[in-house]
């Protein structure tokens, strides 16, 4: 939520900052802006800035019309609006009265009303509706009193409440960019004779893969030759260095029209990578980053999964797998609801937090609550160095590579893989499954990338189907068991990308109300469980018959050779045969393709759907 870039070095700051913003635009695209420090005619420095509502392209057009000076220090911002409408005035950067300090900000300064009133009493003119502008004025007051920008930032942060990443430049100090973070992401990129700041590494991956992780309540100063980190009181801190193990090509579209489509097609690789190195030489399952002892895991008598959006649906699938393989009871809860219901937690409860970005504020706050109640927290996360794994007791990283499309795709399937691995690992440690049963499931998981390839090879048929549904006002999704969260996920994808009303239901729930929605021609996408010894398949067939009898058009996702479904489906999408618990890994793929294509045909920006942002860092 909001993308931030800072740069000081030897290149054109405008180029580095604008390019960084392009790579971070998925985090918010309500407005964009840059500020550079240039030498004035009399030798004194001045801040030059440009900002514009709307996407980055609008800012680039403005810079084309009103060029910026060629300098080598600057900051930039791409906004997801919280306080104040998405217009030019509220766009970042914000400046103080004297136009000496420029600031960009991600997060929410909760006490800004108070601070603003005090500043206005002292004749400060604040022109925007944002919470950010107070920080610019406060910093300017501090540097005006004679301290440097680093000290000014430390002092200002001590009076701010809430969540913030702030990045600032000072016209009279053209050699440093200063930033601070509390509950909001910021990483440092370390180069040669140049240094970078970014909300995530995508901002500078083109220039360096050496990064520094910042902790909570820290201030960082970058100059051409160095990086210095302190806490908010000025005490020096040594940041943790890490190497980013993906390169620029991972952040490019590779010939696809959208990042989302590219990421859908990357799923076979992402799943394979997330399974790599998980077996010992004897065939047992190993999870390197587990960090919880076998005894701690054996003591667990309840699991609560917390997550938001698509990650929540991955958690719903995980419940079926964990309970089936381990017999440990599992609750799944929206992270935004979790801590407000006073959940029953103790040291024998394992809280599993699922987050692709590792920065979702709702999930982070839920983790903090769980830890105050002495529960152990295990994160399932795709982003190295992000806050959620750092604040958890253990982590299982998914290896999906950077997910840039705002709608999660490969994030979801790799989260499923991590959840299955966790379930199997717990089964191994607790002895609830035999080793050969676990090895068997691992074997089936290792076959999944090839199965996803098969599903993807049939994409054209799904695209045709999507094109036939462009004018549909409502699309319904049905599923049962592990297919139910898939139905919910299919509906979410369609809502967020195609802006079509869509709802997912459990097949058995239909008759309790939702069936009243069915009318002649209503499209219903049905995720049919594989045939098995349980009665799931037959029950799902009954649900399909019920909607057909009321005039629905059924589009069924079913395993190959399912003649019973073929006989009643208006359209059939075949999936390779896998066990019911693993079917979500395949069934979700056509639903992703469907939403992506439908939104494309409708002319929507698939990677940046309206009103959304990746990485939701506000509660
Ligand atoms: C939907 C989507 C969101 C995220 C949710 C959680 O396509 O991407 O619903 O799943 O915002 O994000 P993470 O997993 O980063 O915590």
UniProtKB/TrEMBL annotation:
Its EC number is 2.6.1.16. GO terms for cellular component: cytosol. Its main location: cytoplasm. It is an enzyme of class 2 (transferase). It catalyses: D-fructose 6-phosphate + L-glutamine = D-glucosamine 6-phosphate + L-glutamate. Residues 2-225 form the Glutamine amidotransferase type-2 domain. It is found in: Cytoplasm. Residues 293-432, 461-609 form the SIS domain. The keyword Secreted does not apply. Keywords: Aminotransferase, Cytoplasm, Glutamine amidotransferase, Repeat, Transferase. InterPro entries: GATase_2_dom, GFAT, GFAT_N, GlmS/AgaS_SIS, GlmS/FrlB_SIS, Ntn_hydrolases_N, SIS_dom, SIS_dom_sf. Pfam families: GATase_6, SIS. One of its GO terms (molecular function) is carbohydrate derivative binding. GO terms for biological process: amino sugar biosynthetic process; fructose 6-phosphate metabolic process; protein N-linked glycosylation; UDP-N-acetylglucosamine metabolic process. PANTHER family: GLUCOSAMINE--FRUCTOSE-6-PHOSPHATE AMINOTRANSFERASE, ISOMERIZING, GLUTAMINE--FRUCTOSE-6-PHOSPHATE TRANSAMINASE (ISOMERIZING). This is Glutamine--fructose-6-phosphate aminotransferase [isomerizing].
């Amino acid at each position: 939520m909001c993308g931030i870039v800072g740069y000081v070095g030897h290149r054109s700051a405008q180029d580095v900052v604008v390019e960084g913003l392009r790579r971070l635009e998925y985090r918010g695209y309500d407005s964009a802006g840059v500020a550079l420090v240039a030498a004035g005619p009399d030798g004194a420095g001045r801040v030059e800035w440009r900002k514009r509502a709307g996407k980055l392209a609008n800012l680039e057009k403005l810079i084309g019309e009103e060029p910026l000076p060629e300098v080598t220090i600057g900051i930039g911002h791409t906004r997801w609006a919280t306080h104040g409408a998405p217009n030019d005035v509220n766009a970042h950067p914000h400046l103080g009265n004297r136009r000496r300090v420029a600031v960009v900000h991600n997060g929410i300064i909760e006490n800004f009303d108070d601070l603003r009133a005090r500043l206005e009493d002292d004749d400060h003119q604040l022109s925007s509706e944002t919470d950010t502008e107070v920080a610019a004025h406060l910093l300017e007051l501090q540097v005006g009193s004679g301290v440097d920008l680093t000290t000014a930032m430390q002092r200002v942060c001590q009076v701010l409440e809430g969540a913030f990443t702030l990045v600032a430049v000072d016209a009279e100090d053209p050699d440093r960019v200063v930033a601070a973070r509390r509950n909001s992401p910021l990483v440092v990129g370390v180069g040669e004779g140049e240094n970078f700041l970014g909300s995530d590494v995508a901002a500078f991956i083109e220039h360096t893969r050496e990064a520094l992780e910042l902790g909570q309540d820290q201030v960082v100063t970058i100059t051409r030759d160095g990086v210095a980190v302190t806490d908010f009181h000025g005490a020096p801190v040594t940041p943790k260095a890490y190497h980013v193990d993906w390169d620029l090509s991972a952040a490019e579209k590779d010939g696809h029209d959208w990042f989302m489509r590219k990421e859908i097609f990357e799923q076979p690789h992402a799943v394979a990578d997330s399974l790599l190195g998980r077996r010992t030489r004897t065939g047992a399952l190993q999870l390197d980053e587990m960090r919880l002892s076998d005894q701690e895991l054996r003591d667990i008598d309840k699991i609560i999964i917390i997550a938001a959006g698509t990650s929540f649906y991955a958690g719903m699938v995980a419940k079926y797998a964990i309970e089936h393989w381990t017999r440990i009871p599992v609750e799944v809860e929206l992270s935004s609801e979790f801590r407000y219901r006073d959940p029953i937690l103790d040291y024998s409860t394992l809280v599993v937090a699922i987050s692709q970005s590792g920065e979702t504020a709702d999930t982070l706050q839920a983790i903090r609550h769980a830890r105050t109640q002495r529960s152990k927290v295990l994160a399932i996360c795709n982003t190295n160095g992000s806050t959620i794994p750092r604040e958890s007791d253990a982590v299982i990283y998914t290896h999906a590579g950077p997910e840039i499309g705002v709608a999660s795709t490969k994030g979801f399937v790799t989260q499923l893989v991590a959840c299955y691995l966790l379930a199997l690992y717990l089964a191994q440690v607790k002895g609830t499954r035999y080793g050969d049963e676990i090895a068997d499931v691992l074997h089936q998981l290792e076959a999944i990338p090839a199965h996803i390839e098969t599903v993807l090879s049939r994409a054209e048929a799904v695209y045709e189907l999507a094109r036939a549904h462009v004018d549909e006002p409502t699309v319904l999704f049905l599923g049962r068991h592990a297919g139910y969260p898939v139905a919910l996920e299919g509906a979410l994808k369609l809502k967020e990308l195609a802006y079509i009303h869509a709802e997912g239901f459990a097949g058995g729930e239909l008759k309790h109300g939702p069936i009243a929605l069915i009318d002649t021609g209503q499209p219903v996408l049905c995720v049919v469980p594989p045939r098995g010894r349980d009665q799931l398949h037959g029950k799902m067939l009954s649900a399909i018959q019920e909607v057909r009898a009321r005039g629905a058009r059924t589009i069924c996702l079913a395993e190959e050779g399912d003649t019973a479904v073929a006989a009643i489906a208006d359209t059939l999408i075949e999936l390779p045969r896998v066990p019911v618990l693993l079917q979500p890994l395949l069934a979700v793929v056509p639903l992703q393709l469907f939403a992506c294509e439908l939104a494309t045909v409708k002319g929507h920006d698939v990677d940046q759907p309206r009103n959304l942002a990746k990485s939701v860092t506000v509660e």
